[in-house]
Specification:
Elements (H helix, E strand, L loop, with lengths): L4 E4 L3 H12 L7 E4 L3 H11 L2 E3 L1 H5 L4 E4 L6 H10 L9 E4 L6 H7 L6 E5 L9 E7 L5 H11 L3 E5 L5 H9 L1 H18 L4 H21 L4 H7 L6 H11 L2 H17 L24
Helix pairs in contact: 7-12, 8-9
Organism: Gordonia insulae
Subcellular location: Cytoplasm
InterPro entries: 6-PGluconate_DH-like_C_sf, NAD(P)-bd_dom_sf, P5C_Rdtase_cat_N, P5CR-like_CS, P5CR_dimer, Pyrroline-COOH_reductase
Amino acid sequence: MTERIAIVGGGKIGEALLAGLIQSGKQTKNLVVAEKVPSRAKEIADEYGVLVTDLTSAAEGAQYVFLAIKPDDVDSVLRQLAGAEDNAESERVTVTLVAGLPISRYENALQAGSPVVRVMANTPMLVNEAMSAVSAGRYVSDEQLAAVTALLETVGRVAVVPEKQMDAVTAVSGSGPAYIFLMAEAMIDAGVALGLTRMQATELTVQTVKGAGLLMSESGLSPVDLRAAVTSPGGTTAAAIREFEANGLRHGVYQATRACAMVSAKGRLRPDVEGLTGSGGTRGDSDTP
């Protein structure tokens, strides 16, 4: 049976998922996007050659419905999904990429027994390098979870975790890109203070961050081993590391991730991915409230 996949929300994350699915070989005739802003709907349809329609039409007959929307839109979307007639040959799986809302919120709003998968992704999805964590609801089968995982792997890596770990996931990877960007920002400013032009400092920093990430990913060595390999006793790197430790970098990371997880647990956090979901705007715009 051919899988029909609906993506609700034409923001940057919704578009990134759509592009990844197409690049992986999914046929555009089996993909549909629900987007309520006419200008954005036209842009997506023109760019990718997919059907862009209203929510009810998009969900009809879909085996997988991905919600790439803002939290404020969730209740309205769930009411429409619950009331929509489902003529699919198999059970519809609702996959939420919305930050901070538990699976029970969806299960209680949808028809009884509806399978729901919760995803915490991050903004590197925009360059097919996402780190997505997925948690299965009570009614999700092993086969359905495997299928959702495979679909998300078109835009990065996927880890399956119990939902109780989602706050920790948010603190490490969901909001994590912002930590790296902050470090890069500080390195650029420091380079300028040392006499580099801002363009020079930016190029040096961005490539260094990129290369370090690839080295951690592909070398098979731990961050501890990689750091030790470039830290000669009494050398320049050792002097810098000593200052980081003296100024509490490690402690600051502990405290920052703990604060992030605590706020996430209270339902107030909106990680960086949320600003890239939802409707409206062009691909160069931010949808952050």
